[in-house]
Each structure stands twice: as structure tokens, then as C-alpha cells.
Specification:
The protein is an all-beta fold. The protein has two domains: about 10-215, no CATH class; about 235-430. The chain has two helices and 37 strands. It has helices spanning about 190, 395, and strands at about 35, 35-40, 45-55, 60-65, 70-80, 80-85, 90-95, 110, 115-120, 125-130, 135-140, 150-155, 160-165, 170-175, 180-185, 195-200, 205-215, 235, 240, 250-255, 260, 265-270, 275-285, 285-290, 295-300, 315, 320-325, 330-335, 340-345, 355-360, 365-370, 375-380, 385-390, 400-405, 410-415, 415-420, 430. The strands form five sheets. The protein has an eight-stranded antiparallel beta barrel with strand order 3-5-6-10-11-14-15-17. It has an eight-stranded antiparallel β-barrel with strand order 20-23-24-28-29-32-33-36. It has an eight-stranded antiparallel sheet with strand order 26-22-21-35-34-31-30-27. Strand 23 (about 275-285) and strand 24 form a beta hairpin. The radius of gyration is 24 Å and the shape is elongated. The protein starts with about 30 loop residues before the first strand and ends with a strand.
Length: about 425
């Protein structure tokens, strides 16, 4: 597995976005680096391209050519195998060799229907994460954490203003290693296509983007990616490897409130206590697995005692609520995952399945949810105790409603940090 680069540069993709065909690959494991050091969240990043083309769907003819493109944004995530950069509306600039446009005060691009200006009209989120195929990035026409399609306008005196919308997330591939990272859109209808949503009969009905750009910080430092070690966990008790021979009982206890939030981060349900009691099954060959039987996971809050599970109810935006996990859980970390990543499967270890749970309240009734995939998170190493935190994003710990009334939120994400300890005696465990 190799950590890979991604950045704000993707705004260019807005120029013509189609969606690409899936293909089999190794795990995508991106991380943005500067001189071998992880780039911190909040860093301003620039993506530049020496040329950007909007072609016909077949890619055989250039409709619009810009000799320069520059996208300026900031890094919003760079950990847990996920990299995200956000480009504000108005920060995607395309220029050509023509006269200065009265629409955006930039030199116009050239094209088959005369010189034209190019304007991206949406916020852009450029992202790469383990849910994608290896070395893939995607661009959404919305703030990171939301959903939306890229929109842009190509305007000329001949054809007027031609507005386009991506047919889905724009997709492309990026390079790793070397002295600088580069990102290339897939110039096919499946990879970076867009269709006309407004404009006259002279506007092409569809097209695709062809461009390659590099990424750097605002001071000109080139950004790259490099191969990092695979996940290599060992669960230890006072510095000694914890034996899994007799499958010792282990508690996972939340070290702060557990929340079920909207995909945008607003809190829906808060539980002040959570405990998962299971047994250690594997702790060797860089693989750690623990299994929690259905019914051995409890969530409680500060409300009255629930008649459904006998525990104090959690608080929520729609009144007090009980939370019940209905599946067996397998918590695991192994070399197939990115460094310091764990996953939770809604089935016995060695099997596959999604996590299912119920949030019930007097107001909304029972709302049943199923995780989008394996719940993902990161863990700490060293220190006096291991801490495991879920990734509170739709890709990391998202869940969708599979049963319940109209008052039940349709989706959400889990936000939880917990520690591990043996049951008898109670000893904090660490991961090395």
C-alpha cells in the first residue's frame, strides 16, 4: 500500500465532468506530503495546469483550450487514509491567450466557436479515500461532507453562455513518489463528462475534460506522496504481548460522549456512556481481532430508564432515545488496512456483514440503520492506553436508514472514541 497525493487542484475538473467506470485495484491509501512530512490540515494549496481542454465526448476534437488553470483552496483532511481539499467558489481560474473577457477580467481561452471565458460556479471538494480504487481522486461540486455536481459556464460571443453539469463525481488518477504529484482527469464520458443544462443550439450538448495539473503550497513548495508502512498492530498489556490463546475478555469503553450526527456534523443523538464487552480472538502476525456478541454492546445517557433495554436513555434532537446494536461486531486491524486504521464489521470475525443498530424514541419510533460499509477509524500507539476513534464521515462511519417513519433521519455518522482494557483484572491496554 502506498500513501498518495490529492489537493485543491481538482477545481479544473469542473470544466467538464463525467463519471468513470470502476476497476479492480489494491486499497487506495492517500496521504499528502511535503518533503516527506505530512501536510497539516488548514494548509493553503494551489493546483496548476499548463493546459486544460474541453473536448467532444469521443476526445477526438478540442472544443475549448485554456493555456493556464489555477485552483486555490485549503486542505481539510489528511489522515486515516483520507485526503480532502476544498476550493471556494470563485477560486478556480482558467485563462487563455485571447483578449481580456468582460465577464471575468481574464484572457479568454480559444475554441472551435471562438474565444471564450470559463467560470466554475460551484464550491469544489477534491478527495481521495480507501473507498476508491487505488490512485483515484474524485471531485464533487459541493463543500466537503456534502454532495453535489460540478457546474461551470463556457461563454463566447458566437454561442453565448453554455452551462454544463457533471454527470457524477469527476474522477481521475494521481501519481505517487517522485519530486511532485500530478493529477490527471479521465477524458472520457465515463471519467470526466458533463452535459449541457442551459444554452442555445450552438452550445455542444456534452463533452469531457482533458488536463493534468501539479500541486504545491502557496510558497511554491511541490507536494508529493510516498509509500508508508502497512498497518502492523499488536495489543499489549503493560508492555507485554497479550495472549489470545484463551480468548481473554476485553472491554471497550467510550472515553468521551458517543454521538450519532448528520453527515454535515450536527448532533442527532448523544450517549454519555458506551461499553462493548467481547473476547480477543487474534493478536499475532500483525493482526488483532476482537469479537463482541450481539447484545453485549450498551449505550446509555442521562435520561430516564428505557423500557426497551433497561438503560438510561440517551438525549437526541427528537427527545430521549434508546440505542441498541443488533449485530455481532468484529473489531479488527491488520496489514490490509492503512497505517493505524481499524475497522468494525457487523458479523463474526472471518465473516462479512454491516453494522446494524436501532435508535428509538417516543417521538420518532424505532429507526433502524445499517452502516454503509465497514465502520472505519484510527487508533493511537504507545502511551499508557490505546484510543480508538471512528472517522465521523459518511465514508468512515456513515449509516443509512433501512426502517422507520418519516421522522427518522435518513442517514448519519458515528462519532466515538474508546479505550480498551481487560475485564478481570481491569488493566488498560496499549497498541504498539
Amino acid at each position: 500500500m502506498s500513501k498518495k497525493p490529492i489537493t485543491a487542484s481538482m477545481a479544473l475538473i469542473a470544466l467538464a465532468a463525467f463519471v468513470l467506470p470502476a476497476y479492480a485495484s489494491a486499497t487506495n491509501d492517500p496521504q499528502l506530503l511535503s518533503g516527506g512530512t505530512v501536510v497539516p490540515v488548514g494548509t493553503s494549496i494551489v493546483g496548476t495546469a499548463a493546459e486544460a481542454k474541453f473536448t467532444n465526448t469521443e476526445g477526438t476534437s478540442s472544443l475549448t483550450t485554456c493555456s493556464k488553470a489555477k485552483l486555490t483552496g485549503s486542505l481539510t483532511k489528511n489522515s486515516g487514509g483520507t485526503v480532502e481539499g476544498e476550493i471556494p467558489n470563485g477560486s478556480s481560474i482558467f485563462e487563455g491567450t485571447g483578449a481580456t473577457s468582460s465577464h471575468n477580467s481574464k484572457p479568454e481561452c480559444t475554441g472551435s466557436f471562438g474565444n471564450s471565458y470559463v467560470t466554475v460556479t460551484t464550491v469544489l471538494c477534491i478527495k481521495s479515500d480507501p473507498t476508491m480504487v487505488e490512485d483515484e481522486f474524485q471531485v464533487l461540486g459541493a463543500a466537503c461532507g456534502s454532495t453535489g455536481k460540478l457546474k461551470f459556464i463556457i461563454g463566447s460571443t458566437t454561442a453565448g453562455a453554455c452551462e454544463y453539469e457533471a454527470t457524477g463525481n469527476v474522477k481521475g488518477t494521481f501519481t505517487t513518489g517522485g519530486t511532485e504529484g500530478s493529477l490527471t482527469t479521465r477524458d472520457t464520458s465515463e471519467g470526466s463528462g458533463a452535459t449541457k443544462i442551459s444554452g442555445g443550439f450552438l452550445c455542444p450538448t456534452s463533452g469531457a475534460l482533458k488536463m493534468t495539473f501539479t500541486i504545491e503550497t502557496t510558497d511554491g513548495t511541490k507536494l508529493t506522496a510516498t509509500a508508508l508502512p502497512p498497518d502492523d498492530p499488536q495489543l499489549t498489556d503493560n508492555g507485554s504481548l497479550l495472549s489470545a490463546t484463551n480468548h481473554p475478555a476485553i472491554n471497550a469503553t467510550n472515553s468521551s460522549s458517543t454521538e450519532f450526527t448528520t453527515t454535515a456534523g450536527s448532533t442527532l443523538v448523544t450517549c454519555t456512556a458506551a461499553t462493548m464487552t467481547g473476547r480477543l480472538l487474534t493478536n499475532s502476525s500483525s493482526t488483532v481481532e476482537g469479537e463482541v456478541a450481539a447484545g453485549n454492546t450498551s449505550f446509555s445517557g442521562s435520561g430516564s430508564i428505557s423500557s426497551d433495554n433497561g438503560l438510561p436513555e440517551c438525549t437526541s434532537s427528537f427527545g430521549s432515545a434508546f440505542v441498541t446494536v443488533t449485530t455481532t461486531l468484529c473489531i479488527k486491524a491488520d496489514p490490509t488496512l492503512v497505517e493505524q486504521e481499524f475497522q468494525v464489521i457487523g458479523a463474526a470475525c472471518g465473516s462479512t456483514g454491516k453494522v446494524k443498530f436501532i435508535i428509538g424514541s417516543t417521538t420518532a419510533g424505532e429507526c433502524e440503520y445499517e452502516s454503509i460499509g465497514a465502520v472505519k477509524g484510527t487508533y493511537t500507539t504507545g502511551g499508557t492506553e490505546a484510543k480508538l476513534s471512528t472517522l465521523d464521515t459518511s465514508e468512515g462511519s456513515g449509516a443509512t436508514k433501512i426502517r422507520g417513519g418519516f421522522l427518522c433521519p435518513t442517514s448519519g455518522a458515528l462519532k466515538m472514541t474508546f479505550t480498551l482494557e481487560t475485564v478481570n483484572p481491569a488493566t488498560k491496554l496499549t497498541i504498539s
